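Quick review question:
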């Protein structure tokens, strides 16, 4: 080994040792007793509510409660609308939110949404809700709380407010403000319409719910994942995003392509915020993709079109997307794009928000299905610095240091330009066509064709 090479090896070893020391110090800091990190203490009392669709035409929904209260109820559409709105209001208030202001009007809106057949008859819907609310109050005075459960769900008939009370203590509500944030209401469903009502009615931000619960499942769609990801961007603090995903992130797509795909307004707003952050230096993005994922962008099937895009997307749109990626890399130093052959059998994105002296850390584990190529799917998000640090040390750093990973910006740009040239000169890859071979002897493993 030459002296120069020996110096390089020794330097790399010293850098590796320093990184290990820094990582250990950082973990010691996070574990310090005055730092608020999630603990394995007593879990909060929970009321877990699940609303399921049934085959019954008269009572098409089933409500199941477990935890503080055990109950199982069959619901008509109008009673399902009432429960949805009042339970969301209770959840928002228990999490420190303001709750739903005009609950009766919101119930009317929810019922019209569930009962499509009366959506055009305002008076009929209003009459149905009035009668249903009268019967609902009567039901809560008698049958509903006839169980022997210690905790009960009670209704204030004047304000249409639900509360949980502890029958062995007082008639005071068991709320976050009263008993030290020890009650959590969890709402879930397997029905798309109920899911829309629950998500659309909540007044509490998704990220605030994550902060309180430390872990939360967020459903796909505009009111779920799109809302969460926008909240990750929509603030004044410095933000660092590290992404290991199944396709380039939506902010890298041209606006025209996003509109052609049909993304929500929240996705377009997130893209705008990302580029504002690039320009001001507030936002740093680190994208790690497998090389095959970028080649898959030009994979085409006559029956389905380009496989990584919705139907109707043409070659010009894909070229526009790839050229846009190149342009972002050339213009913004705080947009970092890495390509690798290392296996990435998971889909996750981490967010570091410097909202205080110690940053907040969020890790989002996305569902990984083929359709994720076209849209963001549901996710499980955690607010835990130890999870973030472990993933950074043991997954992200491993991928970045993998021998196959392209880290140099100029190499990544050239790799993308090679794919652009391939698409222009040879056309799309077939569904099962092998991507062009790479030369392992060439630094960065760039494609061989045309060289």
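Suggested answer, residue by residue:
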């Amino acid at each position: 080994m030459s002296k120069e090479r020996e110096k390089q090896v020794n330097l790399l070893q010293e850098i590796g040792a320093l990184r290990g020391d820094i990582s250990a110090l950082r973990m010691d800091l996070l574990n310090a007793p005055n730092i608020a990190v999630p603990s394995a203490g007593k879990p909060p009392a929970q009321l877990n509510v699940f609303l399921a669709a049934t085959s019954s035409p008269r009572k098409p929904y089933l409500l199941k409660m477990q935890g503080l209260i055990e109950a199982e109820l069959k619901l008509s559409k109008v009673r399902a609308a009432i429960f949805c709105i009042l339970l969301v209001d209770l959840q928002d208030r228990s999490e420190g939110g303001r709750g739903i202001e005009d609950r009766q009007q919101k119930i009317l809106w929810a019922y019209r949404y569930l009962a499509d057949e009366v959506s055009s008859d305002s008076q009929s819907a209003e009459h149905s809700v009035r009668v249903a609310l009268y019967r609902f109050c009567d039901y809560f005075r008698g049958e509903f709380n006839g169980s022997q459960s210690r905790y009960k769900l009670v209704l204030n008939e004047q304000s249409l407010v639900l509360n949980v009370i502890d029958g062995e203590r007082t008639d005071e509500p068991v709320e976050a403000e009263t008993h030290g944030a020890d009650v959590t209401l969890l709402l879930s469903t397997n029905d798309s319409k109920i899911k829309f009502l629950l998500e659309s009615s909540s007044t509490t931000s998704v990220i605030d719910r994550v902060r309180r619960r430390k872990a939360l499942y967020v459903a796909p769609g505009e009111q779920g994942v799109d809302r969460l990801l926008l909240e990750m961007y929509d603030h004044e603090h410095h933000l660092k995003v590290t992404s290991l995903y199944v396709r380039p992130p939506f902010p890298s797509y041209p606006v025209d392509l996003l509109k052609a795909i049909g993304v929500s307004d929240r996705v377009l707003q997130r893209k705008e915020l990302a580029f504002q952050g690039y320009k001001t230096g507030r936002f740093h993005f680190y994208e790690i993709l497998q090389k095959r994922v970028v080649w898959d962008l030009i994979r085409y099937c006559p029956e389905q079109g380009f496989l990584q895009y919705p139907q109707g997307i043409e070659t010009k749109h894909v070229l526009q997307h790839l050229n846009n990626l190149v342009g972002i890399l050339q213009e913004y130093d705080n947009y970092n794009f890495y390509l690798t052959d290392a296996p990435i059998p998971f889909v996750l994105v981490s967010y570091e928000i410097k909202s205080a002296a110690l940053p907040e850390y969020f890790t989002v584990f996305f569902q990984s299905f083929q359709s994720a190529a076209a849209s963001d799917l549901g996710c499980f998000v955690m607010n835990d610095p130890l999870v973030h640090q472990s993933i950074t040390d043991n997954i992200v750093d491993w991928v970045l240091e993998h021998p196959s990973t392209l880290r140099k910006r100029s190499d990544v740009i050239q790799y993308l330009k090679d794919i652009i040239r391939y698409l222009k000169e040879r056309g799309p890859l077939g569904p099962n066509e092998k991507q062009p071979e790479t030369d392992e002897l060439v630094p960065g493993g760039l494609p061989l064709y045309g060289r």
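Why it works: The longest strand covers residues 45-53. The chain has two domains: 45-204, 216-426.
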